[in-house]
Design a protein that fits this description.
four-stranded antiparallel sheet; three-stranded antiparallel sheet; 11 strands; globular; disordered C terminus
């Protein structure tokens, strides 16, 4: 029996809450094939060609799907990432594979120089990493992976070893990255938020003098169409920001680019709830972490919610103003179990309205405002639909009792993953594949959607098992 067959057979020994049919089984096997093809022995690459190293939030999403195939491999995925953590608590956005040639990806390890430029911040000596971070999905992923096989997790001490690293990661974000002084974490580079070329960054990036085009070579264009990727001007500014951050010893607070982002902070809050559950599993109360998540939710609403527009917006920390660009990031706070009911209702109306057309003209949730001047259905995060953000919105809809809308989005995500061979992202109207195929988190989250209950409403505990304190309503019509 080959490895994929073994993993698929093992998954069948766990309780599965959907009724499998031929199509479902085929999709399950094909998704497992992608994860097997992208497995390196200790972690999973997003894409063998375009992204040949380990990425931080990719690995978190991949582990969430892998738990349905092999809880042990899902634990290993996260442990590999956490082992590259810096002493100051940051989890780097890339952990480099030393067997991959330097010219296979840019910026490469010799650009970041983590072990020398990051020495004061406690970068590891034995592994090369980048010096920036990505969204903090990790505690949520750790908790969900634990739940997939609690006996295995306890026998390996999985939570006991992960918890102090996750706690240090959250301390770093809540203290070193509170650059706006309002309690929220700031990103200091567009790559940190994960939505690299979102129009939300255009205004703050306009202050950054781009690095000369001749000073770097874009390896991404060897594997992706130029019209689907960020522009050379975008890249010049990304390189300048990263260079300045590196040359400053990766010290936070000096950059002209500092933004409070709603999805980054919503994921931090969701993971804080997850850390509370992990603490309880380890014998503590978790009360302080739930309370911190409540305070962060209040800060998110106070600082980033615009009631007139019915959206969460990014805040430019350097000038103190909200950035009036509608992106999928502003919908992701639907994840939060104690988001005020009126705000959750408004976010659902916004998602279904003309700017995102969820359940209407758009097949999946676009990454950016369909009516925005910068909208482009194929260019990376300026309009295409991504599977990880679609999964987060689906979970958020289910969290707040929007069963019918969640079920419809789940079906669209599964059908699109199937039709596009697990594409990196797609045209939000047509579902046309863009970027890499056989993409790691697309396959992994397809598995998670296949293993979730599509009919009955899922409470806060059922959706993410983050909190048992939310004020739940019934299904909404």
């Amino acid at each position: 029996m080959d490895r994929t067959a073994q993993l698929t057979a093992r998954a069948a020994t766990h309780s599965v809450v959907y009724e499998p049919d031929v199509t479902t089984h085929s999709l399950h096997v094909r998704a497992a094939d992608v994860l097997e093809a992208n497995w390196t022995g200790s972690s999973t690459v997003p894409s063998r060609g375009l992204y040949p190293h380990q990425w931080s939030w990719d690995s978190a999403f991949i582990a969430i799907g892998l738990r349905h195939l092999s809880p042990l491999r899902a634990q290993t995925e996260l442990e590999t990432l956490l082992s590259a953590q810096w002493d100051d608590g940051r989890i780097p956005h890339i952990v480099f594979n030393p067997s991959v040639p330097l010219d296979a990806y840019f910026p490469s390890p010799d650009f970041w120089r983590s072990s020398t430029a990051g020495r004061a911040a406690g970068a590891p000596r034995t592994v090369q990493t980048s010096g920036i971070v990505q969204p903090p999905v990790h505690a949520l992923a750790v908790w969900l992976v634990h739940q997939a096989d609690p006996g295995l997790s306890r026998s390996r001490g999985f939570l006991a070893r992960a918890y102090p690293r996750l706690a240090a990661w959250h301390r770093y974000l809540l203290h070193r990255r509170d650059l706006g002084g309002g309690g929220l974490a700031s990103v200091v580079h567009p790559w940190e938020q994960g939505m690299d070329n979102s129009p939300c960054w255009d205004a703050p990036l306009s202050r950054i003098t781009p690095a000369p085009a001749r000073s770097f070579r874009r390896a991404d264009l060897d594997h992706g169409a130029a019209e689907d990727r960020p522009t050379d001007l975008d890249y010049g500014r990304y390189v300048r920001l990263a260079t300045d951050y590196r040359d400053g010893g990766y010290e936070d607070g000096a950059s002209e680019f500092a933004v409070e982002d709603p999805s980054f902070n919503a994921l931090l809050i969701a993971s804080e709830h997850a850390l509370a559950r992990i603490a309880r599993e380890l014998g503590a109360t978790g009360t302080a972490r739930h309370a911190r998540a409540e305070r962060l939710t209040a800060a998110l609403v106070e600082r980033l919610w615009d009631p007139a527009e019915g959206m969460f917006f990014c805040r430019d920390v350097r000038n103190g103003s909200l950035i009036p660009e509608r992106s999928v990031s502003g919908l992701i706070p639907l994840l939060l179990p104690t988001l005020p009911r009126d705000i959750a209702d408004t976010l659902v109306r916004t998602a279904r309205g003309p700017h995102f057309e969820l359940g209407g003209a758009a097949r999946l949730v676009p990454s950016y405002d369909l009516l925005g001047e910068a909208f482009d259905p194929h260019r990376y995060w300026r309009g295409p639909a991504w599977f990880n953000t679609g999964w987060l919105v689906e979970r958020g809809l289910r969290q707040h009792g929007e069963r019918a809308h969640a079920d419809a989005l789940r079906t669209a995500l599964l059908e699109t993953a199937d039709a596009t061979d697990f594409a990196e992202y797609v045209d939000p109207y047509t579902g046309e594949a863009c970027g890499a195929l056989g993409f790691g988190w697309t396959a992994a989250l397809t598995l998670d959607l296949l293993h979730q209950q599509p009919i009955a409403d899922i409470s806060a505990v059922g959706a993410f098992d983050m909190s048992d304190m939310s004020d739940k309503g019934g299904e909404r019509r």
